[in-house]
Amino acid sequence: MNNEKILKKKMEKFLLTPLLISIVFMVLSGLLFLVDTKSAIIVTTVVTVVILVELVVYFVSKAGIMPALIRFAIEQGQIQKELLNELAVPYALLDTDGKILWGNKLFIDAIGEGSKKRIRKNILAFFPTIGSDVLNSEETVNMDLEYNEVSYNALIRRITFDEVFEDEDTVVAPKGEALIALYLFDITELKHYKKENEEQKLVAGLLYIDNYDEVMENTEEVRHSLVEALVDRRINMYLATIEAIGKKIEKDKYLFVFQQKFLPQLRETKFAILNEVKSINVGNEIPITLSIGIGADTNNFAEAYEYSRVAIGLALARGGDQAVLKSGDKTFYFGGKSAGTEKSTRVKARVKAQAFKELLVDKDTVIIMGHKRPDADSFGSAVGVYRLVKTLGKNAHIVINEVTSAIRPVLSGFKGNSIYGDDMIISSEEAIGKVNANTLVVVVDVNRPTMTECEELLTLANSVVVFDHHRQTNDIIENATLSYIEPYASSACEMVAEMLQYVEEKVKVRPLEADAMYAGIVIDTDNFLTKTGVRTFEAASYLRRIGADVVRVRKMFRSDMYSFKQLAEGVMNSEVYMDAFAISQVKPDDSDAPTVVAAKVANELLDVEGVRASFVVTEKDDVVYVSARSVDDVNVQVVMEKLGGGGHANIAGAQLKGLTADVAIIQIKELLETMYKEGDI
Q1: Which helix H or strand E contains 297, and what residues bound it?
Q2: Which of 441, 506, 548, 568 has the fewest CB within 10 Å, making it most exposed?
């Protein structure tokens, strides 16, 4: 009825407008009598005739025109309504609460209410993912929905009455009220083909036998071919389960290609081949371990292969016996339960030492830094690199911002010593001021940029070298000119001690420097009890020969009575969780090196029978530090990675911000229980 009234008013205005204009002309013709009577009579006569015609049209035609226009408008409305009802897209109108006010035939059929003309339900009954935030959004929302195994792309648009009815004289609803228009576009088939296309993408994989040489050396020669045949058979059978095409490119390396649809299968089984090859035993004393690198989710196969090379590099750098999947920008780790097999050869150390020496040729200044809150290994390895650089005639500086009790005993011999000068130890600000085009930055005992003493140096220097023994994570120092990461090593000091022996120029290490490096090995191995291999003793022997004093080092790191009581309290307050994991908390009070006592407690707890791993937490400056240690086959590095940390298979740690020590312990317990159930530890 409102529309009919509006139409009548507009038609009346339309018909009366010419009549009003004619009246104006009549007034003007009257004025014309003052100028020319004859012309005025003619004009007046014409205007009068026009007015009479317009009156006839208005009164006679109005009765016929108005019903015709109204019928036309109604017919058009019915046509539009029918077209909307027969629209080839499911369409519905909702109120702002989501209640369905009206839906066309396709919409009613789509939601399975074909027998009903009107649906008295809320849209959330069919599509729960449409929340109140979507219904109240002022913007047009585009989202994917699913119902009855059909996928839809939904367009949800808010239509206010103010936008629809703009006539000021018409009031059809209170201002601000609105309707929600919902369009559903069936994309089931499109999603099917997209998924099929995605699944058929090629994935590149590299598989390396970690310890091929070591296994063969410890196996009778007559059994070598049998070991190779069994490994080949296991690998080929495994590749057959994912319909992969594999090729042995070297005696211990394989390249394989498969479709991306098999990736979920590999992830679900957590690359079972890692454990299958370990069961091969035909006289080989050392279990065979594999490293796998997978490159997926790329636009072309060349990029997938490059991703697989990055992934296998990560797997090897983390100690092997694991699979690394690089899918686009994300990296996933599987396996890595074992501590790895020690490498007896020192060829890599010799090669890296020579490469480092060549890098120093055109450099005039070397800045060395470890991780924040440095420990004995960080400082000791920095001192070793310092001595190597000074031997080659270059300027060298070590960046240390905070001197804690962890390094104070060994650092005291260098501070104020005229032999080393005041510029041996510098702060981050001083180091930044010394950077130029010929500066080399050496990072020791850490490979994560965020944990270095001065992350800014990594971007300022043209050349960066990394020497570390921790397993790599996703957060690595990128574009390093030289990277020597050896997770089999016990400590960074061990690595540097080996390198010192392979530089052509004879490096004269002073006793004080030898003490610092020896201390780093002792602390990181817990007096040669943890992660100690043949090369560890060889490095310690070398340092002992060049002047390291065992008694002097032991005196440096003796605990005071207060720290010793803290250690005893930490052991006393511990609990054994799941009959295998010792968990404790240390309250450091005003200690400037809270992790030292925590690490000692963690080491002590490993001596308890039945304890496979220990986790000790402590708080300092609103940060919770976790020290993790293990014996046997528990890889604590994998556990700490879940908390954002890292380390070794037997020695690891993490820093948790925004938590209390009690909450951290709860998180550790939940994580251990989950990982144990899933078979990750």
Answers
A1: none
A2: 506
